[in-house]
Amino acid sequence: MTKKMLIAGNWKMNGSLAANEALVKALVAGAAAPACEIAVCVPAPYLAQVQSLVAGSPIALGAQDVSTQAQGAFTGEQSAVMLREFGVRYAIVGHSERRQYHGETDEVVAAKTAAALANGITPIVCVGETLAQREAGATEEVVKRQLAAVIHVNGHCISEIVVAYEPVWAIGTGKTATPEQAQAVHAVLRAQLHHAASDHAAGIRILYGGSMNAANAAELLAQADIDGGLIGGASLKAADFLQIIAAAR
Ligand code: 13P
After folding, report:
1. Owning domain of residue 102
2. Atom of ligand 1 nearest to the CA of 95
3. In the prediction, which pLDDT does 1 show?
4. Does residue 65 surpass a pLDDT of 70?
5. Is residue 238 lining ligand 1, measured as CB closer than 6 Å?
6. Is residue 160 situated within a structural domain?
7. Quick one: pLDDT band at residue 199, thresholds 50, 70, 90?
8. For 159-170, how does the pLDDT look when each residue is reduced to its tens digit (9 = 90+)?
9. Has 95 been annotated as catalytic?
10. Of 3, 85, 149, 230, which is the most buried if we count CB atoms within 10 A?
11. Is 1 among the domain residues?
């Protein structure tokens, strides 16, 4: 297998100049020769700070969102062109918190994916069901619909995306999906990607996210179709994040 795992931290709306410096310095020192790829997706105001902190290290810089638009009257938005200026390599798109609190539809997520791809930023496309949807037996249908919208608009370069399966009920709850539950959904997503990109589907990374931590990472990452992690809370603690990185081989 040539593809390396990707361990990406999603800091969400956390951090400060002082805390970021301590965290990233510890990560740079602790992850000198990682077996996996590493990214930190930081709040927009800290992109410049973290860009210089990770310079020359194996840690890539990521953003947590990207505008569908290139420039103009879109107050509060950041374009992919701007993110590129700060060396951003990854952008999370369609995180469930953006779908839930900012009304992002599947179509908006597909357009954000396109905007990132058009500017050489790898989108980390998040999909995932709520607890109610899982209990109603709708998990497959929901994640397939979310991914289908992205494939519909970006089919020609779908092999360039990263997918993150994040069951909403597992995010920030300490209630992680079991490795079997996660693998089952990852296999569904892999099959859908295979349909869209045949030969390339095996090389597309599908990350798991949702209460992944130092204790459960190895077991999750051992699943056949889990190619890395998108980590929230545990990415804010250097020792925990470094343990997850060490488990990704
Ligand atoms: P937690 O790891 O805090 O559950 O967050 C997961 C997540 O939403 C990453 O994007």
Report:
1. 6-247
2. 10
3. 46
4. yes
5. no
6. yes
7. confident
8. 999 999 999 999
9. yes
10. 230
11. no
SS (H, E, C) the chain: CCCCCEEEEECCCCCCHHHHHHHHHHHHHHCCCCCCEEEEECCHHHHHHHHHHHCCCCEEEEECCCCCCCCCCCCCCCCHHHHHHCCEEEEEECCHHHHHHCCCCHHHHHHHHHHHHHCCCEEEEEECCCHHHHHCCCHHHHHHHHHHHHHHHHHHHHHHCEEEECCHHHCCCCCCCCHHHHHHHHHHHHHHHHHHHHHHHHHCCEEEECCCCCCCHHHHHCCCCCCEEEECHHHHCHHHHHHHHHHCC
Ligand 1 touching residue 229 (CB < 6 A): no
pTM over 0.90: yes
Residue 82, domain member (yes or no)? yes
Q: What's the structural domain count of the chain?
A: 1
- Asked if 21 is an active-site residue, the reply is no
- The domain spanning residue 191 has which CATH number? 3.20.20.70
pLDDT value at position 2?
65
